Amino acid sequence: SDRLLGGFRKTSDRLSDNLAGVVGTAKLDDATLDEVEDALIVSDLGPAAAARIRDRLAEKRFGLSITERELKEAVAEEIAAILRPVAVPLEVTAFPRPQVILVIGVNGSGKTTTIAKLGHWLQEDDYGVMLAAGDTFRAAAIGQLKVWADRIGAPIVTGPERGDPASVVFDAVKTATDTGIDALVVDTAGRLQNKRELMDELAKIRKVLGRLNPEAPHDVVLVLDATNGQNALSQIEIFKEVAGVTGLIMTKLDGTARGGVLVAAAEQYGLPIHAIGVGEQLDDLRPFDPDLVARVIA
Ligand code: GDP
To answer: Between the CA of residue 228 and those of 16, 223, 247, 259, what are the distances in Å?
Structure first.
């Protein structure tokens, strides 16, 4: 967690700095609350979460004197309160096995790396993991996933470039079932440029999956790049419609990203946040700890 804080703290400077300027007057009054709300919005928490935090602060402390340190702690507590309900780890519970985890997200979001990290994570919990290269649109995507599969020592099912993703997924589920795999992690195409095509592709994958196991896919995990700030929110919007997202993993929180968008996502969509990515290495996936993240953001 030191490492997380170390890398992540950069992302929080903005809100901290903004909050730092706020408490000049001794008492929490409307003007101060306005400034707090602005600071939250500027830091990507979004208008809804900002208003909610403002209201909570006002309820608890209006007219009372407050130091800068107390204000930050109070804001962190309200952020944590928004994040706690969405901190839901990804559990492998599917019966019959395998649990089918579709991973979606735009190219460049860190999807492939996240699949490898997630596979590695599940292996460390003693689950048998298999990968499936369902993004057949990009030859590079298949190759890259193969490299990661080798690295974590997981079997992988691939098909031909430009082949049918649904048939890759079909093969993968059959092989995973036959070989007693616990979790099948499926890469999918992230082409938002052609929403219709992507929708059809995912619908076909679902249809094939449903024929093999009515419960599948058990998870549809959207990978979001935290450095995209507010764009991450519009991606949730679109992928919710296109793919039926069941949970999120936010990557690149070690960089210059501001974690505030996590709060906006939690407030607006209430989707489970399963984990966060804090680097490019296999072990750079962290459980989503709302209290830690809240303290870092504030
Ligand atoms: P994809 O196109 O969505 O499959 O993205 P990739 O998995 O290929 O990742 C794109 C780039 O982001 C690569 O250079 C990754 O190493 C990098 N990346 C992925 N996750 C993280 C993260 O959590 N932190 C950082 N700093 N880089 C990441």
So the answer is: 20, 12, 18, 11
Report the distance separating Cα 269 and Cα 238, nearest Å.
12
- Asked casually if ipTM beats, i.e. exceeds, 0.90, the reply is yes
User: Does the annotation place 190 within a ligand binding site?
Assistant: yes
- Reported as a single tens digit per residue, the pLDDT across 132-149 is 999 998 889 999 999 999
Q: Is the full-model pTM beyond 0.90?
A: yes
User: What does the alpha-carbon distance between residue 290 and residue 259 come to, in Å, rounded to a whole number?
Assistant: 11
Which residues are bridge partners to 178 per DSSP? none
Does 187 appear as a known binding residue?
Answer: yes
Name residues contacting ligand 1 (CB within 6 A).
105, 107-113, 251-252, 254-255, 277-280, 284
- d(C-alpha 111, C-alpha 113), whole Å: 6
- Please list, in sequence order, all residues whose beta carbon lies within 8 angstroms of the beta carbon of residue 200, skipping any fewer than 6 positions away: none
